[in-house]
Amino acid sequence: MKKLLLASALSVISAHAASAEIRVGILHSLTGTMAISETTLRDVMLMLIEQQNAAGGLLGEEIVPVVVDPASDWPLFAERARELLTVHEVDVIFGCWTSVSRKSVLPVIEELNGLMFYPVQYEGEESSRNVFYTGAAPNQQAIPAVDYFLEELGVETFALLGTDYVYPRTTNRILEQYLLDSGIPQENIFVNYTPFGHSDWSSIVADVVALGESGQQVGVISTINGDANVGFYSELAAQGVTADDIPVVAFSVGEEELAGLDTGPLEGHLAAWNYFQSADTPENEAFITAWHEFIGDESRPTNDPMEAHYIGFNMWVQAVEAAGTTDVDAVRDAMYGIEVPNLTGGTATMLPNHHLTKPVLIGEIRPDGQFDIITQTDPVPGDAWTDYLPESAVLTSDWPGLDCGMYNTETETCVQIESNY
Amino acid sequence: MIRILRACLAGLILSLSVMPAAFAQEEEGADLQALLQSRADLVADASRRTVGEVLELLVESGLAEVPQFLATWQARELYQRDSDGLFVYVEDPDADPLTLLDISTGEVIGTAGSREVSQLRPNRGVQGVIAGALVQFQLSSEDPAERLQALAAIEDDPDESHLPLLREMLEEESDPAVRSAIETLLPGLIIAFADSDADRVAAIESLAGNVSLDARATLNPLLTTRREVADALPQELNIMQVLDPGSAELSVDEAYQMLVDDGLAPAIVSRADQRAILAENVVDGRVGGVPVAELGDYEARDRAYGALVDAGLAQPAPTEAEIEAALDAHVFFDAYREPSSAVTDAARATLDGIETRVGLFRLLDLSLDGLSLASIYFLAAIGLAITFGVMGVINMAHGEFIMIGAYTGYVVQTIVPDYTLSIMLAIPLAFAVTFGAGVAMERLVIRWLYHRPLETLLATFGISIALQQIVRQIFGTQARPLTPPDWLAGSVAINDVVSISSIRIAIFLLGAIFFVALWLILNRTRLGLEVRAVTQNPAMASSMGINPDRINMLTFGLGSGIAGIAGVAIGLFAQVVPDLGSNYIVQSFMTVVVGGVGNIFGTLFGALMIGSLQKVIEWLNPSNTLAAQTYMILFVILFIQFRPRGIIALKGRAAGD
Amino acid sequence: MEGKSIFTRNRSVPIFIGLLALFTLGVTILSEGYGTGALSVSFTKVLGMTLCLCLAALAMDLVWGYCGILSLGHFAFFGLGGYMIGMWLMTARTEAVVRANLAGNVIPPTEAEVSTATALQIFSVVGAEDWPWMWAVSDSLVLSLLLVVLIPGLLALVFGWLAFRSRVTGVYLSILTQAMTLALSLYLFQNDTGLRGNNGLSGLQNIPGAEGIGQDRISIWFFWASALALGIAYIGAAWVVSGKFGNIVRAIRDDEQRVRFLGYRVEGYKLFVFTLTAVICGIAGALYYPQAGIINPDEIAPIASIYLAVWVAIGGRGRLYGAVIGAAVVSLLSTYFTGGRAPDIDLGIYTIEWVDWWPVLLGLGFVLVTLFAPKGLGGLVDLIVRKDKA
């Protein structure tokens, strides 16, 4: 029995063995809890590859997508990444959503010198030689949103509500320090963590409302993830809290998430992203049209991580063309400084720290599940190591210049070449 | 709320535009467009901090069209033409191309595509400032609604000038709604801005016993303090308390740091600073005579640092005695920002009274929360109490029946658009669907396994996986909304402390109805009698003419059907996703086991205990909800050690062994 | 004497050990690290991890198939074993990195500084910077290995003692063990409990002290270790279930009350089996997670333990090779079908994508096996063996 299995597995593996075309690995969960968000990213990658092939492929060859399913299971991400690089011999990987899945993949792609594009906003504090981060670092999403609260809405008491995992934890740690630096006293910062899919929000919302007894404007910074948002916003609405009373700015609520919600109670609350579907530019219009045509469903929204893949893929294509090969080291060297137009206007530039320059947009939720863009900043360069935590402030990342992703500017030494996972 | 605001604005614009356009045109001096163009950037990229300048200019200009302009701008209906920066109104924002109107005359001045003009969207902060500027126009308006709106703007951002205005207005106001709004607003303004302490104290005392958030928000700012240090206690300040360094409120380190910050004492040299100074003073591989290689040790570092201090190369670090002396030489205190002690004393006394009442209400609120959580657990578990508790069948797919019920509700809602009607339809339909599913499962799988309970567990687990995945195939992984009708969307608030959402009250009622209905079915009907007979002794029941097969089938169907209805209720406040049910399954089993198997009273007590316990633990540790769940489960495990048969244990033969 | 007799008393032992040895040899010859390279590193890892799962299933079979305790918590012990070894792996690796970095400083670091910097590296991910108490011995390999055995064992001992003492049996015990698993996974999910919350421990495949050695070799080492552990455990389990002890244990499964009336201390036997199997699971986990590379609370979720029971049920309870076959077949098939390797079946109107339909098939598979083949796949062996005799 075992022998039989082995043989069949072997034959499958050899069937995939090397041929000449260019292979792009897509490492997004198609089943399990993360499938909600990640399936869309697989689709957008398939669309981008199809478009590129229609336009003549890359270096005269056809691009072949290799889709695998890590099934929202973090150890499987590492296993699948190893397969993609060693068995399917892909030239580049586009993948991951959660931080833990990225941390699971990191040791593998660093060991095998792979190349991955990571499209989701994340907590920063990382810069791997083998990863290009096309999503936002905290200074490209969280900090501008807090500035907006401080400057424009005059918020003096902050409730940092988050789902209990690494992105909210690290982001809130950075924000807490940033708020203290901005003169907000510790007692005016309320922090709460809830489990994934939390639905019993009544007491937490009541606690937030009670913060108003100090007589100061209260604002909520929400890093609440996924399903739990429904209950949270409904409870706010049920307790009669409007965006005028207590504004909420969310970092994980986008068009895709709103599609599953009754948006009535959310109207007027905020979200901070680098992209909104409602951005009125010719590039965006073309992208949305192509997407709807590809997916065959006019109601499927576009969102921020999709734009990140759009930018990442186009950058990679340009870098491969510039390098004339898909060899990882050559492509990486060609990546720095490459510019690709953002869908919201302006251009995204790849920085030496493997992050992008991105404009920060703050949008108000509309009843139709789209966003009114209230402010749009000039492109902000992504910061791998935050300036607001003392131990990170001394760190910098500069791969072409210093060949190091975690360089201590005080002692002028490279802390580590491999990433911290 | 926003819709109402919009309606008000529309009314305002209408009432303002009654003013003859000709009048506006005859106005001499600078016209509105020119004024705006002189500050074009501040208008286009308005910020709360800078918009005041533009508003001042506009109000001072005295132009008649200013109120209408402000209202339009605030409502985000102002546009700017990209080609020349001209500010315009548009006729219909959804039209393409847009018809542009002049902001002074309202005349058509051309058309433009949506990318040739930018819609100006002042943020909420700016909208608030504009509302403040509109106050002076609105307070004297004929329309009571506009006056109320102005009062709302004052409430958001009160300033000193409003106090005399409102006092004057109160004497003349005839509209009762506006009057009462002024009366609620005045004490706050008096407390904040009145000159006479007596007035303020009276206003403070008028708030006694008022648990509303506004009252507390008015009083608390009076009691804000700042922490200071001085050589001697200053007499002119309103001192709250003198602090002793080393007490719970002020540690020695914090106190000394205050002295350092104020330049009253030399800084403590931290380990990091010490290392940096040592690194700067390496001479020939030695620091202060100590070889560098030995410095991987704090004692050696202290020695080297001492040598550096002796050589005058480093600042001496203060000793313990010096720190103590420095602390003794100064006095640390908290001073109220409010200078009048009469006011702070009154505020403190009033607030203490309020806080006591708030505490009591919080307790009530906590109990309501616990009750509400208990009713959710009860709903999720009651179906299980029948299949597991009465029949002894362990059904791991119970959660999936809840999920199917929720999806049934979703499907009904996509067909029947009226939310009230769709919920009314969904409840019986969900029951029917899951009843059918339950009967099918009992016939096909469970009845073959009555003597192998552990294997029932595995088989039903297999069904649970398959059902989840099939639903995922049909409806996708995307969460589906199940929207409550409007009459269930709000909440019932007793005051600002105690409130409970209507949906939770509905779930509570539903739980109560289920409980009574089930009790009646099991204890007062023929079916119930037969069910009890079959559970206690199937062979005997069978010989009495009862068909145990039929009874088992019906009982299982009933338990499953109830799960379906619970699904509709749970779907209304949580998101409908394929793994909805698996979130409730373990909790439900524990509810049944803790309560005592075979008795719906047991399930009721089990749910009450688990629900209220979880709320109490959450209340003790409000920043971590996960911890509450962990401790709750640990408690349940321990509880079962001491009462293995649950709160209400069956006695006699039905108890099993 | 004992060891020899077990080979003759239980015919499956020599056959199993022989097959396992052949299999290990085959994988080694085909491996990238020491052989022809026909087997990729990732597939070698899958095989090694499968052996660990077989080991856990073996333990599950002992406790359920032989002793009648359907524990839905044995994967929690498996995960705990992984966490215990993971703490050492993370600490040792990170400390090496930190030391190398601090060595560049002008002033040599103190031990306290190394420790602080290591803690910061490990815990900054979850917003903390101090060593939690449970990492106290994480710098010692020997103590960590001891914990791999001690912690799951102690938890099982305490839990089992409480449960068996109160005569919690049958489905109640199953639910209670499931509650324990849920409590443990919720506890680990909290970021401030010290085991890095949802992120768990990662980068475990990088073995400290073996920095220069590629994963192609490390994967084979772990494969050998897993095969060795499985072999030893199989012999040990076969010894335990044979003889008088085995008879009593089986008797407890069949009628606990009667055994008690015969004067045996049922609780003691049950507690011994429960704890022993928890320890085996802990060891299996400690071998599994360095191959998987990451452990986090999701691994411990109650559903994982149910799967373990399902493997045993499919393989065939009450026979040791049944558990091994079940775990190997189901987990490898799952890998095959959810890995996107299985070709989709185009029915014209509908395309069956295995990634989506595999769970349905698996779920219905349990039902069918439970209903129609209570002996599981192991029952097939009976058919063959009987034919031989006939």
Query: How many beta-strand elements of chain C?
Result: 4
Strand fraction of chain C: under 5%
Biggest sheet statistics of chain B: 5 strands, antiparallel
Q: What is the CA-CA span between the terminal residues of chain C?
A: 32 Å
Range of helix content of chain B = 55-70%
Instruction: Domain count of chain C, please report it.
Output: 1
Distance between the termini of chain B: 62 Å
Topology:
The complex is a heterotrimer of chains A (421), B (657) and C (390).
Chain A lengths: L1 H14 L6 E6 L7 H20 L8 E6 L5 H13 L5 E4 L3 H13 L4 E3 L12 E3 L8 H10 L5 E7 L2 H16 L7 E6 L7 H9 L7 E6 L4 H11 L9 E3 L4 H4 L11 E4 L8 H14 L8 H20 L4 H8 L3 E3 L5 E3 L7 E2 L2 E5 L5 E6 L3 E2 L8 H4 L1 E4 H4 L1 E5 L4 E2 L7
Parallel strand pairs in A: 1-2, 1-3, 3-4, 4-5, 6-7, 6-8, 8-9, 9-10
Antiparallel strand pairs in A: 10-14, 11-12, 13-16, 14-15, 17-18, 18-19
Helix pairs in contact in A: 2-11, 3-4, 11-12
Chain B lengths: L1 H16 L3 H6 L5 H7 L1 H5 L6 H11 L4 H9 L3 E4 L5 E4 L7 E5 L5 E5 L4 E3 L4 H16 L4 H13 L5 H11 L3 H18 L3 H9 L7 H7 L5 E6 L8 E5 L8 H10 L9 H10 L5 E2 L2 E2 L6 H13 L9 H9 L2 E6 L4 H50 L7 H18 L3 H26 L8 H23 L10 H4 L1 E3 L5 E3 H23 L1 H11 L1 H6 L4 H26 L8 H14 L4 H21 L4 H18 L15
Antiparallel strand pairs in B: 1-2, 1-5, 2-3, 3-4, 6-10, 7-10, 8-9, 11-12
Helix pairs in contact in B: 1-6, 5-7, 6-7, 7-8, 8-10, 9-10, 10-11, 11-17, 14-15, 17-22, 17-25, 17-26, 17-27, 18-19, 18-20, 18-25, 19-25, 22-23, 22-25, 23-25, 26-27, 27-28
Chain C lengths: L1 H8 L2 H19 L10 H26 L7 H29 L8 H13 L17 H25 L4 H20 L11 E2 L12 H27 L1 H12 L1 H6 L4 H27 L1 E2 L6 H14 L4 H19 L6 E2 L4 E2 L1 H19 L5 H12 L1
Antiparallel strand pairs in C: 1-2, 3-4
